[in-house]
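Figure 2 data, in text form.
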Amino acid sequence: MSAPDAAQADEALPGAQTVRRAMAILRLVACGQERGVRLIDLERMSGLNRPTVHRLLKTLIQEGAVEQDAATRRYLIGPEISLLGLARTRRFPLLTLADPYLAELADQVGDTVFLSVRHGHDSICIGRKTGHHPIQVLSIEVGVRRPLGLGVSGVALLSCLPDAESAAIVQANAARLAVAGERADDILARVAQARASGIAHAPAGLMPGTSAVALPIRTESGEPLGAVTVTAMAERLAGGRLAQVVERMRDRAAAIARRHAEVSERRR
């Protein structure tokens, strides 16, 4: 059975559509981390009508998968999801092998280093190391889930993909990107620039006066394993110093890729 035929068969099963919609809502709620997500934003990003979103949320709350902040009325991931995650303590093998290289990079550049991976249409931060500079830019937390294309790590990951695939992902994320104030065309322009230069650079970062640069970690065949990002005060990622930081990032990304290849070869 082909993949499309299998997907159609799955949709025909009783409750399959409800499960898919519930999972989509969970992923959107996860994007809010500790601040939560408003009902109106869940409605806009999911493309579902309000009664359907509200019904799914009610069931997810009953199951402990989602909770609602009584003061803000925003929705957050519930304790049941966190407890289920404990069943897989070794779920991020890339983080395990990349950890010493990330620490080394943070020590070399003095600024904060992040490791992100692609999961479906999202990028997820799975690791963070701080450097020795007095001011560290902790722009995102470990566990942050964002639509691919939002932030330099997502742009770097998309830049590894063929044009048609990256465009399809960005278009699929268009509603979520719009809620964040981003246009799909602008994202695709950044992806094209990153594909040409090998880096995704945001001179103006998420926080005022900061900057960020990311580049992908690629397998030998060019597939993206993840993305390494450095965030710092804007003056620390400009001019000649930006070039120096990028050179060190490329060196450590290549080392992570080699280590991944070695481990993968031993497991065959």
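Caption note: The beta strands are 66-68, 75-77, 112-119, 122-129, 145-147, 200-202, 210-218, 224-233.
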